[in-house]
Amino acid sequence: MILCHKIAELKKAVRQCKKEGKTIGLVTTMGALHEGHASLIKAARKENDFVIATVFVNPTQFGPTEDYAAYPRTLEADCKTAEAAGADLLFAPSPEEMYPHKDMTWVEVTGPITKVLCGRTRPIHFRGVATVCTKFFNLTECDRAYYGLKDAQQTQVLQRMVEDLFMNVQLRLMPIVREADGLAKSSRNVYLSREERTAALVLSRSLKHAREAYEKGERSKSKLIAMVTEEIKSEPMSNIDYVEMYGMPGLPEVGETITGSVLLAVAVKFGKTRLIDNVVLGAEA
Q1: What is the CATH number of the domain that holds 70?
Q2: Which of 22, 85, 112, 132 could make an SS bond with 17 (beta carbons 3.0 to 4.6 A apart)?
């Protein structure tokens, strides 16, 4: 596997791929790679001739009170994980390489899709995501880019961006990868104490119960949200940011009676660690 830090090196590899007629699959990450990231790389390996993974802790998607400085940086281990999963090249640029100018060009998806869920408390987050992903799409000239549905709002924002800007990339959205006990894989899980990690299992458990209720015929938005909220609140270490439901795709508002496909999403703090999880209910679940 090739490891490169400079855009010029990346572009050289991409030019060679294009010259040889190879398809390119892209997996963008902020590092601290785990089995969830590896599953995306493996999916890209199956569908493309050349697989590029990125490791870049993107400063523009962190707010002033968020964990940018403390975010885990494990490049040596990430290289091993990426190579084992099938990556051909890992691009790990510096912030200065990706943002060379003080006055920046931004890519921003506006409207309700970036204002609900995480966008409500993280107002600059999705502008940073959209901007850096546009840069990576342009640099790699990828045919397909792979994202996990744990970050469901991010996938919807990127789909809107790709559609609105007529980008020549296909987004491939992959299922959530979980630990054996149900906890969704996340780079932030390393922040949890043993007690907090045990407490965090209430997220997947409550969503599982909501899915079961839906499958038994429950179609009340408010009842399903209340069910999840009450179960999470029963865990004393939990501090709920949101428990909300929106339509899929695109995150439109949904009525009291659920029809079609919907996203039931949660964000909860355990200690200082904020975790997200979700379940899709309905036709495309």
Answers
A1: 3.40.50.620
A2: 22
DSSP class of 1? -
**What stretches of 178-243 show up as alpha helix (H) in DSSP?**
194-215, 221-233
What is the per-residue pLDDT for 64?
A: 86
Same domain, 156 and 239: no
Determine which one of 5, 37, 101, 209 is catalytic: 37
Of all helices (H) and strands (E), which one includes residue 263?
strand 262-270
pLDDT tens-digit series, residues 189-230? 999 999 999 999 999 999 999 999 999 999 999 999 999 999
Instruction: Kindly report the backbone phi and psi dihedral angles of residue 80, in degrees, each rounded to the nearest multiple of 5, phi listed first.
Output: -65, -45
The parent domain of residue 262 ranges over 187-279
Is the same domain home to 89 and 6? yes
Inter-CA distances, 2 with 54, 78, 90, 189, 258, Å: 12, 13, 6, 28, 48
Residue 284 lies in a domain: no
5 tagged catalytic: no
What does the alpha-carbon distance between residue 113 and residue 107 come to, in Å, rounded to a whole number?
14
* Polymer length in residues for the chain: 285
CATH label of the domain that carries residue 228: 3.30.1300.10
In a domain, 222, yes or no: yes
User: What average pLDDT does the segment 159-170 reach?
Assistant: 98
H helix count then E strand count, the chain = 9, 9
pLDDT of residue 285: 40
